[in-house]
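Sample entry (192 residues):
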Amino acid sequence: MGIGKRVESETILRREFPKKCQFYGADPDPNPNKALFEGINGTYFGSAIGAKTEVKQAFLLTNNGYKPYTIPHVALEEFVSNIVGRNDVVDWMSIDIEGGEIDLFPSLLKGGLFDRLDMDICQLNMELHLEPNTDGSPSDGDVAIYNFVRDALVSNRFVFLKVTYPYKNRVTHYGINVESPRCRQRYMSSLV
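Predicted structure, serialized as tokens:
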């Protein structure tokens, strides 16, 4: 979710696993995302993804940096269930939706959307967007990010690896689902 003019990871996965990968990408800006994603035999969906279907502001990457736009968002449940088509396992999910990821946190935790759909996210790449208040104190979004990481760790669902701080207000991480038997069988059976 959030192609952002970059498909390097998908290109590598396509090359390494040419017959096993199905890619579904969502980004509201078709230029150049549609051509990039279809160039790796992925299915492009031209919308932003959110916690619910609504029209709201989002920041889109333009040639002049990020700019705010009011655009339609499709609910994550609609995207997963009706557009992608439900599957029991999502091997790799990448989320970089310029702050909108905060609304999706509950879907990834125990009792959330993916649990209700009996789906497992085995590997999760996410960019988190920190936006402290002008006085330097944590914003509501920053607190939500902390709570998500804490809850994911306490629940023993995800182990976060390669946590980086590439920009002043960005944190990226790679998470592995160690709770799911389906994910453990797919990715960790040779380790035990």
